[in-house]
Amino acid sequence: MHTRRYHHGDLRAALLSRAEQTLREKGSGALSLRELARDLGVSHAAPSRHFKDKQALLDALALAGFERLAAALNGSREAAGEEFAERLAALVRAYVGFATGNAELLDLMYTVKHDPAASDALITAAHQLGAMAEEMVAEGQRSGEVRQGPVDAIAMPVFTTLHGYASFAVSGVLPAAEVETGLDAVIAYMVRGCAPS
Questions:
Q1: Average pLDDT over every residue of 153-170
Q2: CA-to-CA distance for 44 and 32, rounded, in angstroms?
Q3: Helices (H), 41-175
Q4: Which residues contact 154 (CB under 8 A, 6 or more apart)?
Q5: 176, exposed or middle or buried, with CB in 10 Å at 0-12, 13-18, 19+?
Q6: What are phi and psi of 29, to 5 degrees?
Q7: Could you read off the pLDDT of 55-67 as tens digits, one per residue?
Q8: What pLDDT sits at residue 130?
Q9: Closest Cα partner for 99 from 66, 132, 135?
Q10: Cα–Cα distance, 171 to 193 (Å, whole number)
């Protein structure tokens, strides 16, 4: 068997990339460090220099997913206008776009996050999403576009509605053609739920 030589960082990146491809095509049950090594043409021991076991690989995949999602949400926010409704709409569209484009990864992200063995880095990355939603609500309160009250109590229904809609979108409960058109109504519902009395 031909064994390819990877630089230290390259093999880790190649393992994560191949693992995400396997996740997308076959699900997390099909992930195996030995199979990934075979697919990449390296010795079966080579992945262990980067991931001590499958759980460590899943943790790293989930962490990378949260980082990509955060980047997408931050990007949407920077591209949106100043109004709360515009920023919320951009965030919702970015989240649903990520979910529909990375359904298996998103599922893994939330599964691994709740694993007792989840790394501190992963838990921190997951909490940053909630912090982002809370900061948007706090900004909306300061501008008078969002009702007053505990920020987490206002942000939580927004995030659970968003995640629920995304879950419906990726599971096929919502036909693909309706995912985009239904978003307008969901965004309007969220904005009304946050509006001052």
A1: 94
A2: 10
A3: 54-79, 84-101, 103-113, 120-142, 151-171
A4: 137, 146, 147, 194
A5: exposed
A6: -65, -25
A7: 899 999 999 999 9
A8: 87
A9: 66
A10: 26
